[in-house]
What does this fold into?
Amino acid sequence: MKFSELVEKAEKLVGKHEQGRRIKPKKLGKLQQLLSDKKSRYEAKLAETDDPGKRHKLETRLRVVSAQLEKSKQLQAAD
Amino acid sequence: MLKKTLLPTILLILAYGFWVSPDFKEIAAGVSIFLFGMLFLEDGFKAFTGGVLEKLLQKTTDKTWKSLLFGVVSTSIMQSSSLVSVITISFISAGLVTLVAGIGIIFGANIGTTTGAWLVAAFGLKVKISAYAMPMLVFGIVLSFQKSKYLKGAGAVLAGLGFLFLGIHYMKEGFEAFKDSFDLASLAVAGYPGLFLFAAIGAAATVVMQSSHATLVLILTALAASQITYENGLALAIGANVGTTITAIIGSLSANVEGKRLAGAHLIFNVVTGVVAIAFIHQFVLAVDVVSNSVGIAADNYTMKLAVFHTLFNLAGVLLMVPLIHRMSEFLIKSLPEKAKDLAEPQYLSDAAIEFPETVLKALKKEVWHLFDSAFEIMAHGINLHRTEILTSPDLEKTIDDDREVHEFDMDELYESKVKVLYSAIVDFISNSQAHMSSDFSEEMYRLRRAAGEIVECVKHVKHLRKNTTKYMLSDNEHIREEYNNLRYQIAMILREIYRLRGEEEFDHAIAILEMDELKAEIQSAHTDLDVRVTGILRDDRITPIMATSLLNDFNYVDETSRNLLDTAQALLFSHSDLVAEAAQEVVLDEDEIEKASAA
It folds into this structure.
């Protein structure tokens, strides 16, 4: 590989990296808002239902949303 | 047969022409250089596309006047209505623009193409254009050797223009000498038959040269050399307009029905406009004289007057046809109906779109959804359910418990004819278009190819599942029947959820992608529950050990199918241009995280 091609590749990589850093926090913030709203909706539904089958499903979904929320926060913190 | 003999016949005619007349040779060389220039120009413009043109199209064609304007501007810049119409067909095939917007672009392109007539009339015959051609060629070729994509593109545009000018020069020289040995005027017939004859000659010349501009140059040079009368020249120009549709028709051959309808619209517009122009030729001649007088064009300046005529009759055509645009669209939809849902045929993959990355991705995504639809139908029948039951039943669990009808069909045959064919077409299209993709696009393309592969796997799994499902859903043993109905329910529920989420608005795709994780956790949880239940009913002798092993094996197929379907949906809902969806893709949980979240 020629030096000029190497430089071009490196510039592309740096460009992508910088673009990623610029976009992610803002979009992750928006995503966290959407996930938080969803979590609240599931919690409200869970409080309303006594059906064991439905509760079991809602609890599973709630755990997934919480894990996703946690992961997005970790990703944001890492940036 | 015709296809096989056409090329040798053309070559023989050309060779004979070269032998008989050196002037004909010069004209033919001029036309060839001109067309070579067109190829360069097209290549040059393509260097400036790659997402930008596609996005521009979407934003600028949402209203009829906008699409008209787009057609005018893009054709004026590219100097080729054929190129614009072929690109429009590719967009229509990919579902990026509507038929009405596409028709608007084609109408606009017909006005845009008249700027070419002005350029040719203004510069083509008055200035010693070969003097400009040479430096353009030199600069163009030097630039086209550069590494930068854009410099290369600019070089190709410049060289293209250079070749165009050089071609015009040769045609002009050829006609100058040719006028003494052959007289086009000898073909002249008085009245309307003569007009139609010359219109046919104009159409045929454009079909052969694949460029109305080239025909126009021929007409102007022939006019300047007094080879033809002014009226014959007008008829030739009308014919050239009709002949230009052939490129769109060729382009539409590989397009879907929408593309064919657009090519039909192009043909109708140009034929109707041509017939109207011939019918009212005297009125048009009068109008041309009035306009020419008012802008100071000399009465004997036929080249400029031809450009005025070209503009006037195309404008008249657009004014006549724009109010009918919706009716035309309805007529075309009626006369070129979509084939009765032949799911095995790829519907969105058009070779015409292959050089436009954004369009390729959108077409590909639609085709993978199409594959998903085909697979959905087979999988639904595979578990003995109707597609409509899955999508519309208010209580899916109850419907499945009640529906014990066995669907008799050959699943292998359906797999071969509806899934494998489509999958092969997708893989083939991807391998053909990969060369035109940057790394960003090829990553998404790879994701879509994998998604298509997963859909195929799902169908294979359901095929394995079918035998026992059919057997046990009819069993008198209510325990095994209930368990197999649970398996049917799980697949049906996943398919139904994916269709529900697919219908969500664009912005919610991020949430839809993440919701697939919730379904994955539900499956995981169901797996654990099933293990416990099977152990229980086996211990209590409610099912036989053979039933239990069948059930556990088949659950693995269901598990794998469900995960594949959800992974596929996550890939299909992702878009690199939707940044929230891109962020969601990073938050998607991996297998371990799902397992952890599913554990109570």
Remarks:
- The mean pLDDT of chain B is 81.
- Chain B touches chain A through 23 residues (CB under 8 Å).
- Chain B has two domains: 26-335, 354-598.
- Chain B is about 80% helix and 0% strand.
